[in-house]
Specification:
- The chain is built from three helices and ten strands, in the order ββαββββαββββα.
- The chain is α+β, with helices and mostly antiparallel strands.
- The radius of gyration is 60 Å and the shape is rod-shaped.
- The termini are far apart.
Length: 270
């Protein structure tokens, strides 16, 4: 849901867009403000008869490097949008939205019935915290509006034919007027000197020392060595003629065989 408000400031036409449930937070350097959040809230409430903090949604932001207090106030089905310059308390922007619609449109839920649907969702909220009007969104008849209660803003959209809640956005205020308190100071801590750890006595029983008796026994002496020269036995090998005789016998047999072969060849030749 988007609302377009057209106003003129300083002779210049300005168009502001506010999207339901979205708040842009622009970081800027911190500057000392002459007007506090509480003072800005009281300035807004004083402009609307019967209004209280329960009808107000206010927050701090920066615009072009200037600190401002912006927000909305809802009272008796009227919405007031504002901007207050923090350095001087000047009200730079003030718009009033009071759409008069048919409270009992033909074939649709009445405005009172739609109000009961959304008020039932916020504990303690009454029609004094509500702004509601009949609109047509995407070819659907809807009741749209805002509830401000206990520093929380609720924006809604209800199907005017069925009573179904099509949109429900919740936005909690970042700073609440009249609730700023000093941070509690931490109690001083006492430094306790640290002592060196002391050795704990051992609980294990002490074993008695056993003293081995000493005896003066003479060390064994080595056996006396003999100095007499040792005579090595002499070995005179005996020549073995068995191999030579065997070779001689084989040679003679070969020679006899050759002679017989030769004799046979001569006899055949003759």
């Amino acid at each position: 849901m988007t609302r377009i408000s057209l106003a003129r400031r300083a002779g210049i036409g300005l168009v502001t867009l506010a999207t339901a449930g979205a708040v842009a937070l622009v970081s800027a350097p911190t500057a000392s403000a002459a007007v506090t959040l509480d003072q800005a809230a009281q300035t807004v409430i004083a402009r609307v008869p019967g209004a209280t903090l329960d009808n107000l949604y206010i927050y701090q932001e920066y615009d072009d490097g200037r600190q401002e207090f912006d927000g909305e106030l809802v009272k008796d089905n009227v919405e007031y949008d504002f901007e207050i310059l923090a350095s001087t308390g000047e009200v730079r922007w003030w718009t009033v939205e009071n759409y008069t619609t048919d409270p009992n449109p033909a074939g649709l839920l009445s405005q009172a019935q739609a109000a009961d649907i959304v008020l039932a969702r916020v504990a303690g909220a009454t029609t004094g915290n509500l702004r509601i009007y009949l609109d047509r969104d995407d070819r659907v008849n809807t009741y749209e509006g805002t509830i401000i209660k206990d520093f929380v803003k609720y924006e809604f959209e209800v199907n005017a034919s069925t009573g179904a809640v099509r949109e429900w956005d919740v936005d909690q205020m970042r700073s609440i007027p009249g609730t700023a308190t000093a941070q509690p100071t931490a109690a001083p801590t006492t430094q306790v000197p640290t002592q060196a750890p002391t050795a704990r006595p051992s609980t294990q029983p002490t074993q008695p020392s056993v003293v081995q008796p000493t005896t003066n026994k003479p060390l064994p002496t080595a056996a006396p060595t003999s100095t007499a020269p040792v005579t090595q036995p002499t070995y005179n090998p005996v020549p073995d003629n068995s191999d030579a005789s065997e070779l001689s016998r084989i040679f003679n047999e070969i020679l006899n065989l050759l002679q017989r072969i030769f004799s046979s060849i001569l006899g055949w030749w003759r």
